[in-house]
Amino acid sequence: MPRLISPLLLALIGLILFGDGAYIHAKAWLAQVLLERTFERSIATGQAVKPWSWADTWPIARIEVKRIGASAIVLEGASGQALAFGPGHIRHTADAGERGIAVYAAHRDTHFHFLRNVAMGDVIDITRRDGQHFRYRADSSAVVRFDASGIDPTTRDFELILTTCWPFDAVTSGPERYILHATLIGADR
Fold it and tell me: Rounded distance, CA 28 to CA 154, Å?
């Protein structure tokens, strides 16, 4: 009897862990569908629209890397709750298209999973909720400690940073972050 229980118990634990992982990805996907609709309403009305009544955030931009078919709706703020649903705009950094550095952060296994496929020279399109569209070119990347990013918040240039945990395939979080830097190359206002 114990020989039968052990494999069944292991199979049950495996199913629970698989279900937990599938739930996280399903929630991330469904949130982006709802956020896309909310983002379109924000562009149409020019107002910040919350994606659901209890949300403490709202969509502010869409990131697209067309070469690899990647797209994500960015939320205002980078609280743990916001990052569960999409990339977050780090407060006190510039808005996309403004002078300074716009910094967006997301989880490596959901919304910024695509960063591993972004190549230097790729164009990153940002559409803000006011309908303005900006094009950036990826020009460098680095792996840094979370407390030593090297990001200069006083820059006078027009820059974009996309950041996530490193390494991409890790199971648990660690102290390193992947930083993708891009520079503004054009705008459609």
Answer: 33
Strands annotated E in the chain: 59-65, 70-76, 88-89, 100-105, 123-128, 133-145, 158-165, 176-188
Average pLDDT, the chain: 88
Domain 2-188 -> CATH class = mainly beta
Cis peptide before 51 (omega within 30 of 0): no
Four-residue CA torsion sign, 188, 150, 73, 60:
negative
CA 105, CA 117: separation in Å to the nearest integer?
Answer: 16
Specify burial of residue 132 (Cβ count, 10 A radius: 0-12, 13-18, 19+): middle
Phi-psi region of 154 (alpha: psi -120 to 50; beta: other; left: phi over 0): alpha
Which among 164, 167, 175, 29 has a CA at the least distance from the CA of 107? 164
pLDDT for res 167: 94
Q: What is the dihedral of CA 113, 105, 132, 44, to 10 degrees?
A: 80
Domain layout of the chain by residue ranges: 2-188
pTM of the model: 0.83
**Residue-wise pLDDT tens digits, 127-179:** 999 999 999 999 999 999 999 988 887 889 999 999 999 999 888 888 999 99
Residue 22 in tokens: 């599938």
